[in-house]
Amino acid sequence: MFIALPLYSIAGKVIALDTSVVLNQFRAATPSLSPLTGLFFRTLTFLEHDIKPVFVFDGKPPVEKTPVVRNIYSLRVLNCFWGTKDSIELLKCMGVPVIQAPGDAEAQCARLVRDGVVDAVASEDMDTLPFGANVLIRQLNAKKDRYVETLVDLCILLGCDYCDKIPGLGPKRALTLIQKHRTIENVVLHINRQTHPVPLLWKYKEARKIFLDKTETPVTNLVWRELDEEAVVDFLCHTKHVREERIRHRMKTFHEHRENRREERKKEKAEGHMRQTRMDNFFRVTRKRGQVRRNSR
């Protein structure tokens, strides 16, 4: 279910992001744009709208992940590993906190929401939901624990990273069965074992336990500092050789936008209403082909 939120509704909120997803989005959407530069633009957009981002980095993949998924996960981490140190340095210059997850970043993001450290997860990855994130911007709001447990069982039936799925059981049938019978244990009692053979030594209970794990991961106090423009320019332009004119121009726009928003808030407070900006406009990372500069980084 897609929920279009007005951007002002999350102003002042703390939002967790899976950094590897963000970097890979830019890598796939705009190959001519350095993911590091994309991270700079994305983070500024958060900050100029008074949203507090927290970037979470992947750790070691869980041993329960299937071999194929572990390879994909490792490749994803490897693809952005080269940029992890640079990303952390850039975010530090921008005054934004980062968190190193012990394992999956999406699982850590979900725990941050569950433990009240952040208000929501900004992600296109549904994996955060079965891990217990009760707010996933642009996707779904699963409000109660029993709904999360049912969602976990549905995700396992559909196929997840931690165990095999029942062959021949498609999305519609799986949804119908879980809505009617509520749990995997009840579902397997009401399916045709010949057309839908249950995998031998099916580790669905282990997968369920991972998703519903309530282990708390200690997180230090999150602190947002004022953006250091000169440090950002020195790092991106003098160290990473991004065109200074481009960075300076965006920073100027950033400061102007924040100042305009301050003035708008004063007027809106007086008028008693706010201009609504859609979340889907905020999250757009692609651009028209004709607008991409081949020499930009």
UniProtKB/TrEMBL annotation:
Top-rank lineage group of the source organism: Eukaryota
Domain XPG-I residue range list: 92-160
Cofactor(s) this protein requires: Mg(2+)
GO molecular function, one term: 5'-3' exonuclease activity
Keyword entries, A-Z: DNA damage, DNA repair, DNA replication, Endonuclease, Exonuclease, Hydrolase, Magnesium, Metal-binding, Mitochondrion, Nuclease, Nucleus, Phosphoprotein
One GO cellular component, as annotated: nucleus
Keyword Transferase tagged: no
Region span, Disordered: 255-275
Record family assignment: Belongs to the XPG/RAD2 endonuclease family. FEN1 subfamily.
PANTHER family per the UniProt record, alphabetical: FLAP ENDONUCLEASE 1 HOMOLOG-RELATED, FLAP ENDONUCLEASE FAMILY MEMBER
Role of this protein: Structure-specific nuclease with 5'-flap endonuclease and 5'-3' exonuclease activities involved in DNA replication and repair. During DNA replication, cleaves the 5'-overhanging flap structure that is generated by displacement synthesis when DNA polymerase encounters the 5'-end of a downstream Okazaki fragment. It enters the flap from the 5'-end and then tracks to cleave the flap base, leaving a nick for ligation. Also involved in the long patch base excision repair (LP-BER) pathway, by cleaving within the apurinic/apyrimidinic (AP) site-terminated flap.
Protein name in UniProt: Zgc:110269
Organism listed in the record: Poecilia reticulata
